[in-house]
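Running low. Invent one:
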Amino acid sequence: MSKNNKIINDKSGNEIENISLEELDLEMNEFYIDKEKINSIKAPNDMKIWIKESIDKAELDIKKSKNKKRLVASAASIFIIFSVGVYNPALAHKIPILEMALRNINSTLKIDELAYRLGIDNIVPKATLDKDNKIKFVKPIKYKVNNVDNISEDQEDEILSSINDNSESPKSEYLAVQFIHKMSNSIINPIDNKKYGNIEITPKSIELAISGLEYIKNNEARNYLYAELNKWKKGEFRNAVEVHNYVWNILDGQVGKAISINEERIEDIINNYFNN
């Protein structure tokens, strides 16, 4: 402490008020730091090294943190893409090997079954290929077809069997949709083990189903079913669950929603009609 500072500190409040300007200037000079004094300050060499190391370490930590965030973001993106692909293998249709791998994973893990049980299929639409081989997301259709002729279940089975036996296409919108519904029944497993009526899938019955599409009044439904049934003509039945649930919704189905494909039945159909 300076002498002048000590003088001020030793004085009482009243005495401080009587300090002369000269004494105050001397005291202030001791606190004044000019540019020359600042420039004359030199840090020891080891301090400079310490500062540099600290800055380098901070930069390295920041870089590691950014890399970690990028890695987490990349992993999350890959997981999301993989999950979407497993749920919708059709998205990889331009890479057949990848599409087949995703379909196998989907089948092994029963992804579609899990999605139906959790109601995910009502939120996330399934992807399919339209007649132009372009991706299309299919949402449950609001269009409904009613049994306006009040055909009984027994009469319906008799009419549909006759259509199939005599190679005559269905002659009404309701029968056209039911024909497809009962065909798809033969290659799916229902969530509640309930399904009523089957029509054997053969090249002939597929052609009859396609012919009956002319009676379907809704363009969206007609175009979708035309594209999907033409896959059946090629022996491609992986869309069976989607096709069944599509017509099941049109018919305002309450029981028997499809949850998975019947692999054994599909294999029989392919061996009998499409491996020649």
User: Anything to note?
Assistant: Residues 52-129 form one domain. The longest strand covers residues 126-129. The mean pLDDT is 80. The chain has three domains: 3-39, 52-129, 153-273.
